[in-house]
Amino acid sequence: MRYCCIKILIFIYLGILSFSGFAQLNRRGTPFSSLYQIDQPTSADRILTPPNKEVVEAEDILHPIPYRFAINLPVNVWIFDPGSGIELPGNKLMYRYTIHAPGAKAITVYFDQFFIPEGGKLFLYNQEKSKIIGAFTAMNNNSEKLFSTALIPGDRIILEYNQAAGISEVPQLHISDIAYAYRGVPEFKEITGFGSSGPCEVNVNCVEGADWQDEKKGVMRIGVKKFGATFWCSGSLLNNTRQDKTPYVLTADHCGNGATPQDISEWIFYFNYESVTCPNPPLEPLSRSMTGATVKAASGDVNIKGSDFFLLMLNQTIPDTFDVWFNGWNRRDTASQYGVGIHHPQGDIKKISTYTTPLISTNWNGHQEMTHWELTWSGTLNGHGVTEGGSSGSPLFDPVGRIVGALTGGEASCDSFALNLPDYYGKFSWSWDMNGPDTSERLDHWLDPDNTGVEVLDGIPLGIPEPIIIPAELQVYPNPSSGIIHLKSKLFDFGNIIRITIFDSWGRPVLRSGRNIDDSDEIQLDLSTLPNGFYVIRIQLEDQILTGRIIRQ
After folding, report:
1. Using an 8 Å Cβ cutoff, are 291 and 247 in contact?
2. CA 484, chain centre distance (Å)
3. pLDDT string in tens for the chain (553-residue length)
4. Less Cβ around it within 10 Å: N or C end of the chain?
5. Contact criterion met (CB below 8 Å) for 538 and 546
6. Strands 92-100 and 147-148
7. Which residues, 6 or more positions from 168, have their beta carbon under 8 angstroms from its beta carbon?
8. Is the separation of the CB atoms in 182 and 105 below 8 Å?
9. Is 312 exposed, middle or buried (0-12, 13-18, 19+ CB in 10 A)?
10. What is the distance of C-alpha 260 from the center of its chain?
11. 141 neighbors 115 (Cβ within 8 angstroms)
């Protein structure tokens, strides 16, 4: 029964949530307690009652999927008491509040009232101070006054508020509840806790991803809050026929079904969370994130009789610095011959899975309508990419980089017996206009607002990359060129893969190439098929990007 294998994973956010819809703002810094070497509190201000282990285990046996690992416990406390501060040199003040949740493997904190005045700083850390997050400041304030913190290991958490001299305005910090992680986090480590996907998976910057360097930028990890818990899903930015960079996001309906509007205002979207190299990195890579979205359309059926799509629009425009891609799409009901899926299995860094045989039109879970694409994954040079929990909602691409489906689920996994079992993607063609007559049940109203009838649409970048010409690092000659150009750099390392993208003056990619560096520090590129004009070249190395200008004449 396919329904049991939906690729959704329950998880607590590993990033900071500030519910304004902007990029996450963390000013770092050092708590006063560390600067002035003040001892940690020895007693807790609030001790919570742990969940009943037997009841929780029985529930998990009865409902094993999706995977739950945290229970929310009510707290309902204001943590700032103006009379409880510790006076420090220079008329500074420090306030601390300790919560003890006995037996918790990790804790995250939810605020339903959050306001920090100018000059105030909030830090959170565990008893050992092995994990410190913050400082959070007035920059984190938002109109909803909602906030949530990263996952902090241990069963005791300390909230420390630092007040600069001369500040009279008081903060508003009310904790509604905490997430009590009771299982599923033994792998939580400061350095390698992100590596939770199966060993067969292939990182998106391996050679398998060389031709998908634009498309990958549109794929994101999504922290989905609903039902008093948190899940991992995947999704993708979508282009629309106006090409106005409206921040539409496509994921799976089974990820969003049941979430309230307030829940969705607390979803977090992680961009470019990936290894810059092919091997798994020793340190967790950074990512850019935004929080908050609004539902525009969905198939809206908990039993997945339709194509299982969920269309969102982010509550804010995406900052230019994010370097993202609005993926194109193909709404024809035609089976793609080969392509890839890009996703975040288990909420891990971005992976790529490859299919080399034609898609098969099918139904889902025995329903009558042919709403899904069926496929099996192929082994490649660096593994045998499949999908896992957390991959739900991720895009399926045709050979030219257009989305043809979003993942519902399947049977494939990294187990040797399951590598070649099928997965199922809700058809983009069905999601377009076949789930129902209302605009809230279909994609066409949103992605083709002027009713142009376009059936295929290419992706576009957020903006043209800013050229950075460093003669010592990259030589491009002849420039201007009538066709063949040579690229030379001392940063070209033997055996490495570089990825080249040429953009026209409108920011559209017109040429892409992945190259293996041989024993020369020079490569050749043919521009003879391009019309005369100005172009931007971007060369992605393992750990940096070179850009420059090229004139074709």
Report:
1. no
2. 38
3. 344 457 665 444 333 333 333 334 445 678 999 988 898 888 889 999 999 989 988 887 876 555 566 788 999 999 988 778 899 998 999 999 999 999 998 898 889 899 999 999 999 999 999 888 888 899 888 888 888 776 788 999 999 999 988 888 889 999 998 988 886 554 443 322 367 789 999 999 999 999 999 999 999 999 888 887 777 899 999 999 999 999 999 999 999 999 999 889 878 888 999 998 899 988 777 778 787 899 999 998 766 789 999 999 998 889 888 899 999 999 999 999 999 999 999 888 999 999 999 999 999 987 889 999 999 999 999 999 999 988 999 999 999 999 999 999 999 999 999 999 999 999 999 999 999 999 999 999 999 999 999 999 999 999 754 444 444 477 888 988 888 998 888 777 655 667 888 887 666 778 888 777 765 667 888 999 999 888 888 887 765 677 778 888 8
4. N
5. yes
6. unpaired
7. none
8. yes
9. buried
10. 20
11. yes
Joined tokens for residue 70: 């945290």
For residue 383, which amino acid is it? G
Cα–Cα distance for residue pair 164/24, rounded to 1 Å: 23
Residue recorded with tokens 């109203």: 445
* Residue 334 neighbours by CB under 8 Å, 6+ apart: none
> Which candidate, 264, 267, 252, 215, places its Cα nearest to that of 393?
252
Residue with tokens 């908990």: 302
Backbone angles phi, psi at 514, to 5 degrees: -110, 130
Predicted TM-score (pTM) of the model is 0.70
User: Fold identical between 207-461 and 475-552?
Assistant: no
| 402-410 and 328-330 strand pairing | parallel
Which residues partner with 252 through β-bridges?
309
In 3D space, the residue among 330, 326, 342 whose CA is nearest the CA of residue 461 turns out to be: 326
CA–CA dist 536, 502 (Å, integer):
6
Domain 475-552: give its CATH code.
2.60.40.1930
Spatial contact of 280 and 195, defined as CB atoms under 8 Å apart:
yes
d(C-alpha 423, C-alpha 408), whole Å:
8
Element containing residue 103 per DSSP (H, E)? none
Place of tokens 């070649």: 420
Catalytic residues: 254, 308, 392
CA 312 – CA 268 distance, rounded (Å): 12
Residue partners of 62: CB distance under 8 A and separation at least 6 = none
**CA-to-CA distance for 234 and 159, rounded, in angstroms?**
31
Q: Across-strand partners of 231?
A: 10, 224
Cα angle: 336, vertex 341, 343; to 5 degrees = 160
Compute CA distances 545 → 86, 211, 311, 345, whole Å: 48, 16, 32, 26
Q: Are strands 533-540 and 545-552 parallel, antiparallel or unpaired?
A: antiparallel
Query: Do residues 2 and 305 touch, judged by C-beta distance below 8 A?
Result: no
- Alpha-carbon distance of 151 to 188, in angstroms, equals 9
Q: Which fold has domain 207-461?
A: Thrombin, subunit H (2.40.10)
